[in-house]
Amino acid sequence: MTQTPRPPLDPDDLAALGEASTATITTQLFKHGLRNTFLAGLTCVTPDARRMVGEAFTLRYIPAREDIDTLEVYDDYDHPQRLAVEQAGPGQVLVVDCRGQGRAAAAGNILLTRMAVNGAAGVVTDGTLRDIEEISRLPLPVFATGAAAMTNLAQHHAVDLQVPIGCAGVAVYPGDVMVGDADGVVCVPRHLVPVIARTAREQELQEAFIVARVAGGAPLRGTYPPDEATRRAYDESRGALPATD
Ligand SMILES: O=C([O-])CC(=O)C(=O)O
Ligand SMILES: [Mg+2]
């Protein structure tokens, strides 16, 4: 299908998003009116992998049908699932729409090993994965709802690459930026990346200051959220630079 050209992402913005928590990013998106950006119910199944940040490369599954989705379809190296695995490259996160259905796996260890070797930035699905023990050792951030041994053709039929999808109830457009950490995965609409990157960085700095005060015994009142005096102390700690919102 034809791809709409997308303006390139600024590496500094990606770095800032990669350093911000998903909690911070969801709050910043909320401030911009977006409340449905967190892919609830997914956990990171590769706990030793780096933090995840990258552009969404989408793959859409529909329900399988027994007369179509036979095991022989995998003899075709151009099966859409296989194309997605080969094509999602450096800087890209494969986001797989399983319609929240997990009785058969979205993918398994061989496919995700291929993605790790290709330098993909991560894998996200609102379904399950097979070979989960081996996957858990991959150096690739992977998020899913859990494990299922059954191969994906039993429940899923791969139809589209790089189209808008729903994943865990969130709209994900190709090129949106996916960020993942221990809390889960958030989708940042591409056009909001510069502003969210900047304000998320600022929130992280302010929260580091606040948590140090709370850990040191400060009460919530006056500290969290910060009142005028705490904000002034924070600004002074930052070399008197005024906080941006
Ligand atoms: O058949 C599948 O779902 C794929 C699989 O097991 C793998 O990638 O190792
Ligand atoms: Mg396997």
What does this structure look like?
The chain has 7 helices and 12 strands. It has 2 domains: 38-188, Glucose Oxidase, domain 1, CATH 3.50.30; 195-237. The protein is 30% helix and 22% strand. The strands form 3 sheets. Strands 1, 2, 3, 4, 6, 8, 11 and 12 form an 8-stranded mixed beta sheet that branches. α2 (22-31) packs across α6 (193-215). It is an alpha/beta fold and 245 residues long. The model has no long low-confidence stretch (mean pLDDT 95). Oxaloacetate ion (OAA) is lined by residues 105, 107-111, 130-131, 151-152.
Classify the beta-strand content into a percent band: 15-25%
The name of the CATH architecture of the largest domain is 3-Layer(bba) Sandwich
Distance between the termini: 40 Å
Number of strands: 12
| Topology order in helix (H) and strand (E) letters | HHEEHEHEEHEEEEEEEHH
In this structure, how is the largest beta sheet organized? 8 strands, mixed
As for the CATH topology of the largest domain, it is: Glucose Oxidase, domain 1
Subunit structure: Homotrimer.
Protein name: Putative 4-hydroxy-4-methyl-2-oxoglutarate aldolase
InterPro entries: RraA/RraA-like (IPR005493), RraA/RraA-like_sf (IPR036704)
Region (Disordered): 221-245
